[in-house]
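Quick entry between incubations.
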Amino acid sequence: MQITSPAFKSNVAEALADPHLQKALHFTRPRFPERRAAAVAALPEFETLRDIGRDIKNHTLANLDFYLEIWADNVEKSGGQVHWCATADDARAAVLAICQRVGAKTVTKGKSMISEELGINEHLEKHGIEPVETDLGEYILQIRGEGPSHIIAPAFHLNREDWEESFRKTHTDLPADRVFGERRDIMVEARTILREKFIAADVGITGANFLIAETGSSVIVTNEGNGDLTQTLPKVHIALASIEKLVPTLEDATSLLRLLARSATGQDFSVYTTFSTGARRPDDLDGPEEYHVVVIDNGRSAMIGTEFQDMLRCIRCAACMNHCPVYFTVGGHSYGWVYPGPMGSVLTPSLIGVEKAGHLPNASTFCGKCESVCPVKIPLPKLMRHWREREFERHLTPGAMRNNLAIWGWFARRPQLYRAATRVAAWGLGLLGRKRGRFSWLPFAGGWTDGRDLPAPEGDTFFARYARQQRHKS
Amino acid sequence: MTPPPRVALFVTCLVDLHRPSVGFAAIRLLEAAGCQVDVPRAQTCCGQPAYNSGDRATARDLARGIIDAFAGYDYIVVPSGSCGGMLRDHVPGLFEDDPELRRRADVMAAKTYELVSFLTDMRGMTDPQAAYAGTVTYHDSCAGLRELGVRDQPRALLGKVAGLTLTEMAEPEVCCGFGGTFCVKYPDISTRMVADKTRDIAATGADTLLAGDMGCLLNMAGRLAREGSNIQVRHVAEVLAGMTQELPAIGRARDGR
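Done. Structure below.
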């Protein structure tokens, strides 16, 4: 996927000026928080469960090598194959090799963010294999040639009329006078088209919400059932999973599943939760003949042992972005890569470099809402601040900002001088602003005054007034 | 009779520079709550501009000065959830590599309170004995709410202010878009966020907006003024201390316009 994170500011300017996007964001904004709040209110142990979720992930990350080996052994014991991939290139090559070996022409795909990270679709297309997204949201994005703007609701940025327009433009063999009266009509049309693809597919690619060490299973959750058709109908199932998807036991997976849907969509459970273990056995009625797991590092192991390790607890529920006022102002595409919102603002710099993604951890007010809803209690603002520290240390922070900070810091360390300087500033601004009580414009303050007035100070500092008062008293 | 607790007021740089009356309102309220208030001279800023810009060295230097200046008091009270949160939740973490400073920072953190919650939770204030004729809506500033648990306390005290009607805006817990340096680093986003907030504020029909943090207040007052709104914006302490007759609302001229 093309990276536009360095152009965050211009992405934002475009997003703010896009009435379609703003309409979609405005429409969806209250929905996720309302649903999550209702689901959480109905489960008294939810807060305890968050601690449990955090602890399961921390324990796994602390023993990741140990559990990965157990998991891989169990995959192989159950007739599956494990492909260890250090980089995105390795993973793309592994997927292509499997597809080419079985002579695949069509590949169906369940929704998978790691496949976006790897750019699987482009790679397969380049080699003459047709990938077909089967998640409704991903399907329309594929038609439109867009990337997802949200990790669980990828086409979140589109309005219904956008869907209708794209479907009419693409499905030209269907009657032109058909009516899209409601959302259901869109779904029915997509289902009709996708049925044929499911049956034609030679390989099915899914992501994995969890890998389970004790059984060698992979788990996916979906609401559309497309994941099941993707992984059970073709001869070959490839599950893509990054290393941090691992949990030790089935019990652990179910604990996290109790958190996942509630945090994500406010459902108690997703409509389909599917466990895959190995390939089809001789007595099985159905299932793929081959079961492959492409397990991907792509920068994650380098986070272990650093201040960013906590980020690897993420279970991709999207609660952080669903509750983020910045996300809902600028939309997911502004972040410029695969992962938007608060989790993306921490993860993206780890994966593509803070030189490219430096804006992301800065574009936060640290309001803390994301951390307060994270099912595995990732301290997202703290981790964004750590990125700012790295940027500051490496002199990636813009020069003007550094200079202003240095001047301010010099004074702030010297209370007496600071006192004198602030007194002059407050007095001057107070005098200038006395008549109106505020400024519509001030030199060097355009960032503030372009969109709001700057209230004028009272005119004297607290400390000057306090000193006067103390003198009168004595 | 137990002696009154010795409270050190952390004024905050924005109150010092911009709205000193909030500091005096805090002193008035703390004294009414039976405290002996002192204002250590050697204070400037809690260090958030540096800390949140990744400049830990400056943040540490400022924190050391605060730890020294505020040692020996029973409590440290801050008329801001954001700066209070910095002293209580963040300063200790700056000294992971220095056990002695870490210990002193922990001691300081444990004594630090946001003003309004200190009055209610620690001093048992139930009625501020103030009057304000107006319909008020209250914005929950992020750090006060999510770091220090300030939500019900200001509403309880405002509920006792004679003549005051409290009306809630939609989503009072959503950030106003100030975010410290964020508001000038990403002015487009910040402006859109505060415009969403002022729309919710205006929709309440309230004539007054209150909050407990100067940063958020300057942001919201500035936006309301730009929109030509007549809503009066004040720090909650000004109302609780009965000080509103003594100075115009934030961003307003002396004649109140």
